[in-house]
Amino acid sequence: MIFILLDVKGRGGAVYSESQGPENSRETFAALKKISSALASECAGLSFGPGAHAVYNPLVYAAKPHNKYLELAGASPKKVIFLGMNPGPWGMAQTGVPFGEIAAVRDWLGILAPVNKPEREHPKRPIEGFNCARSEVSGRRLWGFFRERFETPAAFFKDHFVANYCPLVFMDQGGANITPDKLPSGETAALFEICDRALAKMIRLLKPEWVIGVGGFAKIRIDAVSKQFFNPAQEFSSAQILHPSPANPRANVGWEKEVTKTLMELGVWR
What we know:
With about 270 residues, this protein is an alpha/beta fold. It has one domain: Uracil-DNA glycosylase-like domain (Uracil-DNA Glycosylase, subunit E, 3-Layer(aba) Sandwich), CATH 3.40.470.10. The chain is built from 10 helices and 7 strands. Strands 3-2-6-7 form a 4-stranded parallel β-sheet, sandwiched between helices. Strand 4 and strand 5 form a beta hairpin. Helix 1 packs antiparallel against helix 8. The chain starts with about 25 loop residues before the first helix and ends with a helix. The N terminus is likely disordered.
C-alpha cells in the first residue's frame, strides 16, 4: 500500500481530518515513519553557525532503533503525547529513542538495533549506540516513572506517546550541549518552522486529547503550533510537567510525585 502524507495545511493535497484517519495500526506506523523521515531530511538540509561546532541527527544514523520505537509506540491514536525539547547526548543521541536512556530502551522497551555514526563526530561526544556506558538521567527518570505506573510498554503506549520537538543535538567546540533555544534567532527560525510542521502533522495523525510539554520550551512550541495550525474545532489541550533533568534542582527531590500530582490535577490521569 502506498501511503502519502501531505503538508498539514493542505498545500498540494489534504491531510487526515478529524473524521478520516488511517485504517489500521500499520498505516498509522507508516504515516508516523514518513513524518519522521521528512523531519530528518529537512533538518539535515539546515546549516548552523560556528557556535554549533557539531550537529547530530539521530533520526538518520540511529534510524533502525528509532523506527522500532515508532512501530512499538506509535501504531494507534493516543490520548496523551509527552513532548521533550531535543535529544540528550547520552539518551536519544545514542539510541534514537526520545529520552532514550540505554537500559530503559533495551530492557523495558525491548529495543536493540545497530547505530551508525554521525557525519561529523565530536571527540568528546562519541556515538557508541547501545554500547555507551553513560546513562541519561532525564530518560532514566521519565521511562522509570512510566514503568512504575504502567508496568508494561503495551499498557503505556495504549494511550501515550513520547516524542521530541527537535531531532537535532548541538554541541559547542568544547563538546558542551547547546539546547535549541540557545541558538541564534537567525538559525532557529528555519529550524522551528520545520519542527512546527512536523509536530502539527504528528498531532493530526495521533489525535491526542492532551499534548504535554516536558519542560517550558516544549510547552511554548506546542502552543505556537496550536495557534498556527489548528482551529478551535480541532483543538487539543496543552500543559506542562516538570522536566526531569538533574540540572533542575526541583527535579532532584520528588520529581515523580510532583508530576503525578500535576497530571492528576489536570485530569490527564485518574
